[in-house]
Design a protein that fits this description.
Among the domains are: 273 residues, Rossmann fold (3-Layer(aba) Sandwich), CATH 3.40.50; 123 residues, GMP Synthetase, Chain A, domain 3, CATH 3.30.300.30; 99 residues, Orthogonal Bundle (Non-ribosomal Peptide Synthetase Peptidyl Carrier Protein, Chain A); 186 residues, Rossmann fold (3-Layer(aba) Sandwich), CATH 3.40.50.720. Helix content is 37%, strand content 14%. The chain has 38 helices and 36 strands. Helix 33 runs antiparallel to helix 35.
Length: 1081
């Protein structure tokens, strides 16, 4: 293609200037191509000359003799054929107007907002948009603003040759040229944002910025492709650029729909976009994800898509399953990204290096030049980054939203590719992130995209801000609309979409899981509001359904929803068991079968599942015709699922509650004789421990240590990993972490959050594995598993579920995992040193009169029986003790209260001490406490593990990891006051708790945020009740005053021998860290 192209250096400053260049040099070349109206097999073209002629006609109609002001903004509220729309834009530009194309789908209030933002009082409209224009006029009239309305010229006036076959050029009178000098920084035209997060925003395209976009060729530089442009509205930035500026910059026509005048224009639809594209021989397409999704279901369409040079989708996410299917079939799929305000920072498709992989595995990733000077990635602290675009020479942006910077923060959140620099995937928006009341954050876009890919779903929006669990608002497709008040129809629809919701849940962390009860189906008379490009306007959608959402949360605590499952035929245990199995199966992923004798928490249950399960049971009891059954609902304890964690146990407990005469004893069932359970669990997992056959211990070997570390993303685990990697004598570190969406990113986030050096994670000695100690072969491939077993010298097992509601048997799979490690070590040729984390919580009931808590397993299980978590650690300590008697080198690391290091101050904000400090700021005082503090800084913990890994002598059976040189509460309080500004008074703890209780009676969401101690009011109340004279000291200090023997700790760890007492500097560092995180103000 050798036709000349116009320069983009500003010598032709306006679009009419560039169009005139083509009319002179490429007059017969086509600009727009479309199927002929008289023959579906032939094509009609509009040449550059014909389009230029049309622009002259429009200029004469809209501004005769060039009278009136230059640069007047005129809004376009049109629903017309693309050929006329493009010609009108070019004609308005020629006449000296600043056109502002607007979506006619905007609300009257949205249109008024846009008009006012650019001082526009003139609109070009037509009969089909007159109702909207009339409403806009009314809104503006109330503000004493008059709106002039011009009527759109008809197709015969603009393109007579399309209507009567006459020669258009014979009728053209050249429009007068302006004598004014063009200000390249002035707006040439306006477009608007989608309005996905509120009213659409007016975005100017200056003359210079428009030329920059055209010069950059965001649709690619190739003149060998023929774009299908009919699926995009001209008022949208991408439609305008593809239909108007792309043919001017590249010199290649695009395909649009046939003009339908005087009938309404063709409404884009996946089928007619495909048909016109195929007829015209298009080799490139730009489409919405919903179109791509529809095409993916047709083998015929896929065959055509395979012939394209490129298929670009944009404007929203595409389900990975859909994209993978198309790419596997050979479709050249690419994703497009950009913003009206900041342009297109990604590589054009034809500049992306070709991959040797067929199909391309990276189709879903955006390519952003690694060294782009106008791009900055702002970390969000959760593995995601906000894209920030800066204005530089040759790259203007239309809006600035970062104070003091010529930059635009997109609010789009991306994740980097784990191994390929420059590849990024969008995962949501900052303003889309749902922060639950638990503090956990959900990026809803991936789940929403997956649910929307269901053939039954037209759109959806997740919700749950400041709630305990999320829900989802679902709009059915037109052919599947249901009346939500029809309970049977609602249940049927939920069951249809439930498999797709479960698949979406599988992609998300546990706290983001959507339960069936948390699905709201929209009503036909209240569709989800959408922007011009078809995306749901999230904020408006949630506002529209705010009453339904509030009502759902109000009733969820007393849910009576049985999800279509018939209540039990009776409340006898034998009948109840199957009903409970059916109910439980709907609360775990993929509706898996539930074994009645296996712990529910080992079958996928979590705290939220337990809450819903309990609610369903209560609902079923309350729905009974029997008054005695209804009465039993009042006696269901909040922890009933945790206390009876198998279906079999739960069935017996419930039947006994309903009919106490049946012979059951509820208190006995609750207690379960917990000490006997502990003894039985110890007996089970210490039976037949094999004797170690190893002749040489790890500490006797000259082989450099190779460590397998679990739980490396946690508070303690991340510090252990950082210190192991800092020690060059450690040959390799394997980390074994449970599966997540981005394992590497999760590790980096853990380091970044705690002020640890992220660059150490690039160390080649680090090998990150995904698996679980409790699974067969740790969940690894056989070759990988054998590699680990053949090289590891030390296992640091630091991963454990922390949930104080769970019963002992809910930890059995993890206890079994410890026994597995014992067996592996015993069978190893060189013996593997085990370092298994335990907890000083085991000793909470220790009698101080017996002296310090010893560094050995405690003999009486009653001391740890009250909580399942501590009971599980008690069992583990005894398993390790039994293993040690068989020659297995095993050490229980009984971990105390860890606190932030002096250097970084990094102390997680979910623990009681940070919560107390933040709440003290809001309450206006710190609580007076006295006595010893034996908290251990995390850096000291990390270094101690290095000592044990490098030890040249046998390690002890058990160590108490508490500070060997305790400090006093006075030191900590002084440091806290200094960090907070020395203005907070210190009052007795009972007075402090009394202030707390004043807010606990009817806490508002604001109070809960400012005073997080309200969530732990019982804990702090217990401190106050155990205090003496309003302070905490002596024997009355409860769990805080226990003294721990640290002889073995000091003997085994040289760094602990050198550890100095904590000072005010530690507490000041904590406060500094909490302030940096925005936790404490």
């Amino acid at each position: 293609m050798d036709s000349p192209l116009p320069p983009m250096n500003g010598t032709l400053p306006t679009l009419p200037d560039i169009a005139d260049f083509h009319a002179e040099h490429n007059s017969s070349r086509p600009w727009l191509l479309f199927p002929s109206k008289d023959s579906s097999e032939q094509l009609t073209t509009l040449t550059y000359r014909e389009m230029v002629d049309a622009s002259h006609r429009i200029a004469h109609i809209m501004r005769p003799n060039r009278e009136g002001p230059e640069g007047e903004v005129i809004a376009l509220l049109l629903h017309t054929d693309t050929v006329l729309y493009v010609a009108v834009l070019l004609g308005l530009l020629r006449a000296g107007f600043v056109p502002y194309p607007m979506s006619p789908r905007n609300s009257p209030q949205g249109v008024c907002h846009m008009l006012e933002s650019v001082a526009c009082t003139r609109v070009l409209a037509q009969a089909s948009t007159s109702a909207l224009v009339h409403q806009v006029q009314g809104e503006l009239h109330a503000k004493d603003v008059a709106l002039r309305v011009d009527e759109l010229p008809g197709l015969p006036e603009v393109f007579p040759q399309l209507c009567d076959g006459s020669e258009a050029s014979a009728e053209v009178r050249p429009y007068p040229v302006s004598a004014r000098l063009i200000d390249m920084r002035a707006p040439s035209l306006y477009v608007h944002s989608s309005g996905s997060t509120g009213y659409p925003k007016s975005v100017p395209f200056t003359y210079r910025r428009l030329l920059q976009w055209m010069a950059s060729n965001v649709f690619g530089r190739s003149r060998d492709v023929l774009y299908a442009a009919m699926g995009l509205p001209t008022f949208h930035a991408m439609g305008l650029l593809l239909q108007l500026t792309y043919p001017l910059s590249v010199g290649r026509e695009v395909v649009v729909y046939t003009p339908q005048y005087p009938e309404p224009p063709v409404v884009p639809h996946p089928q007619n976009v495909y048909e016109v594209s195929k007829l015209a021989g298009c080799t490139a397409m730009l489409a919405l994800p919903s179109y791509v999704e529809a095409w993916s279901h047709s083998a015929e369409v896929i065959e055509y898509l395979k012939t394209l040079t490129v298929l670009i989708y944009g404007g929203g996410p595409l389900a990975l399953s859909t994209g993978d299917k198309l790419v596997q079939a050979g479709v050249p799929l690419r994703n497009g990204y950009g913003g009206t305000e900041f342009g297109n920072p990604t590589m054009p498709w034809d500049q992306i290096p070709r991959t040797s992989s067929k199909p391309d595995p990276d189709w879903a990733w955006y390519r952003v030049p690694v060294d782009a000077p106008n791009i900055k990635w702002e970390p969000q602290g959760d593995g995601t980054y906000e894209l920030v675009v800066y204005e530089i020479e040759g790259y203007d942006i239309a809006a600035y939203n970062i104070p003091g910077e010529k930059a635009y923060g997109t609010a789009d959140l991306f994740e980097p590719h784990p191994t390929k620099p420059g590849l990024w995937k969008i995962v949501g928006r900052k303003d889309d992130v749902i922060t639950l009341s638990t503090g956990e954050k959900i990026v809803p876009i991936p789940q929403e995209a997956y649910v929307t890919s269901s053939p039954f779903v037209y759109g959806c929006v997740m919700f749950g801000r400041e709630r305990e669990q999320p829900g989802i608002l679902i709009e059915p497709r037109a052919e599947h609309v249901v009346d939500p008040s029809d309970e049977n129809a609602l249940v049927t629809f939920r069951n249809k979409i439930w498999p797709r919701v479960e698949e979406a849940n599988a992609l998300a962390p546990a706290f983001a899981k959507v339960f069936k009860e948390m699905i709201i189906v929209t009503t036909p008379d209240k569709p989800l509001p959408r922007a011009g490009k078809g995306t749901i306007i999230r904020k408006q959608a949630l506002n529209a359904y705010s009453e339904e959402i509030d009502k759902l949360y109000e009733t969820i605590s007393a849910s009576t929803n049985n999800d279509g499952i018939t209540p039990p035929t009776s409340w006898k245990a034998v009948d109840l068991e199957q009903w409970l199995v059916d109910q439980a199966a709907t609360l775990v992923s993929h509706g898996q079968s539930i074994a009645p004798t296996v712990d529910l928490f080992q079958q996928g249950f979590d705290s939220l599942s337990a809450t819903f399960f309990r609610n369903r049971i209560i609902g079923a009891l309350r729905s009974s015709d029997s008054s005695s059954v209804r009465q039993a609902a009042q006696n269901i304890s909040s922890n009933i699922i945790f206390e009876h964690p198998t279906v079999e146990q739960l069935a017996i407990a419930l039947s006994t509650l309903v009919d106490p005469s049946g012979g059951g004893d509820v208190p006995a069932l609750v207690v379960h004789n917990r000490t006997d359970e502990i003894r039985a669990m110890i007996a089970k997992y210490t039976a037949d421990i094999p004797a170690s056959t190893t002749k040489r211990r790890a500490h006797e070997s000259s082989v450099p240590p190779v460590v397998l570390l679990t739980g490396s993303t946690g508070n303690i685990g991340s510090h252990i990993l950082a210190y192991l990697l800092a020690e060059l004598r450690v040959a390799r570190v394997y980390t074994l972490n449970r599966p997540s969406a981005d394992p590497r990113g999760r590790l980096e986030d853990a380091f970044r959050e705690r002020g640890l050096p992220v660059d150490v994670l690039e160390d080649t000695r680090l090998v990150s594995l995904v698996g679980d100690i409790t699974r067969d072969r740790f969940g690894l491939e056989e070759a990988q598993y054998q590699e680990v077993l053949s090289s590891v010298t030390h296992v640091i097992h630091n991963a454990w579920t922390v949930n104080f509601n769970l019963a002992l048997q809910s930890f059995e799979d993890q206890i079994a995992g410890v026994r597995k490690l014992v067996d592996i070590s015993a069978a190893s040729e060189r013996s593997i040193q085990l370092l298994i984390t335990s907890s000083i919580g085991i000793a909470n009931a220790w009698d101080p009169a017996q002296g310090p808590v010893p560094e050995r397993p405690l003999p009486n299980p009653e001391i740890a029986a009250s909580i399942g978590y501590t009971a599980s650690k008690y069992v583990v300590e005894h398993i390790l003790d039994a293993a040690r008697a068989k020659g297995v080198p095993a050490t229980a690391v009984r971990m105390g209260q860890a606190c932030g290091p002096r250097e970084t101050g990094a102390w997680g904000t979910t623990e009681w001490m940070p919560i107390m400090t933040k709440s003290s700021v809001a309450l206006g005082a710190l609580p007076q406490m006295t006595g010893p503090i034996a908290w251990i800084p995390l850096d000291a913990v990390g270094q101690a593990y290095v000592d044990w890994v490098l030890a040249t002598s046998e390690l002890p059976a058990l160590v108490n990891v508490t500070h060997p040189r305790p400090t006093s509460w006075d030191v900590v309080l002084r440091g806290l006051r200094q960090g907070l500004g020395d203005s907070l008074p210190i009052i007795p703890v009972r007075q402090w708790v009394a202030r707390l209780e004043e807010h606990a009676n009817s806490p508002t969401p604001e109070a809960m945020a400012e005073i997080p101690a309200l969530k732990l009011v019982d804990f702090f109340r217990s401190l106050a009740e155990s205090s003496k004279d309003g302070t905490l000291d002596g024997a009355d200090q409860s769990f805080l005053d226990l003294v721990y023997d640290t002889s073995e700790l000091l003997h085994s760890s040289p760094s602990m021998q050198q550890l100095q007492p904590m000072s005010e500097a530690h507490a000041r560092a904590w406060v500094r860290y909490w302030k940096e995180k925005g936790f404490v103000v």
